[in-house]
Records
---
Amino acid sequence: MRELRVRAVLCDMDGTLVDSNALVDEMWNGFADELGLDATEVRAFAHGRPSRATIARYVSDPSEIDGWLDRIHQMEASRFDAVVEIAGAAAFTSALPTGRWAVVTSALARPARARLEAVGITPPSILIGADDVAAGKPDPEGFARAARELGVEGRDCVVFEDTDAGVRAGQAAGCTVVVVGPNRSEATAGLPRVADMTQMHARTEGERIVLTLPSGD
């Protein structure tokens, strides 16, 4: 087993704590179909990025961007039937000390809290959503802000992420990054990883959170 000793834990949400792939795929498939786009390409670009960034890649008219954004956000805020917990996520987050962990997500903050609650995870006091930052992942702003609000340096944090954009954002914020799930790419090469959160264990020793995970890649 491998141990990481940190002062705070920063978690992505979709794909890390919550499996909302079915909902996300439905949203972007509909977007692609209406605009005559390649749905596979759109989904790949959208993964881990704020909705506005994805829409703006394919739509140039500002009013159309805003209209699509409203539709996407409405789905994010109201559709929870296809959302489930990533295995072990609720148990792992409940083992973390209060005030020592945060969520940094490309979803809007309010729907993100509702999505966490829908799968049995109590949202942390600090949750940074797409509407809380000027630049989304892979920009480090969200993780840097979460660390700052927790009163720690990025180097004293571990980030749990499943996407290339999120991995790069965590690294740019100076954090240790653990990959969650099957994503293997240039961005994730050589990083510690877990299949899901059942492989993570946390305990507190003074000011440090001790995390144990499998040592193999």
Note: The chain has eight helices and eleven strands.
---
Amino acid sequence: MKVTLLTYTPNPEKTIACAARLCYSASTIDTVYEGLTEEKASDFVEMLAGLGHESPIEHVSFTFGIEGVSRSLLAQITRHRLASFSVQSQRYVKENDFAFVTPPEIEAVPQAKEEFLKAMDASLKSYNKLADILSQKHYQIFLEEGKTEKQAKSMAEKKAIEDARFVLPNACDTKMILTMNARSLMNFFKHRCCNRAQWEIRAVADEMLRLVYEVAPTLFKNAGPSCVRGGCSEGKMSCGKMEQVRARYREMKGE
């Protein structure tokens, strides 16, 4: 897994403070930035957190590159609908020898790992065989329609992998670019940094939080699972390890 912070709103905390200041003062658009130092911007951001006034933080966004993750993770992360996703397509990109993610619990048990690798190999063989069979069929059809050999071959392969991909496993590696505004990120961290989140998406969320904290520490001071800034929101499903979780996020943030 690799997570990269590709870009973000410049001066994110000052941008948020600017928006908040407009809400609470008689400033005009031309004067709202006047005298807004980094210290005052941090104070504004902390005040917003105390008030629970979250709409101004929607004005800043963060864009991440995420790679080396599974299609299983993709199914989970796209449930966060207030976000923008661009994902490498299995429809247009042939998986000749696909990479895959091995769950740690499987990796730790030799017998389980052996069975898992067999399943991956079988999926790859089925995918390639299906792609070849379908490609030959489509190639002939495109030739009969008057396409050149080069055109027919290219079009046939693309059409073939549309259906061959149905045998690919959830473990199959994928890549994406993801953009979220800060308010959506806070919600994402609340749910996905939690001990009860699935291990892969929790690892991605932790790395995303580490990266955004470096560039906007006041904004993300209390970010993380719900127990970082209060009680656990999981009720009877709580992991019961709130103090350990809080200590882990304090260490991540260098507090």
Note: The CA atoms of residues 83 and 180 lie 5 Å apart.
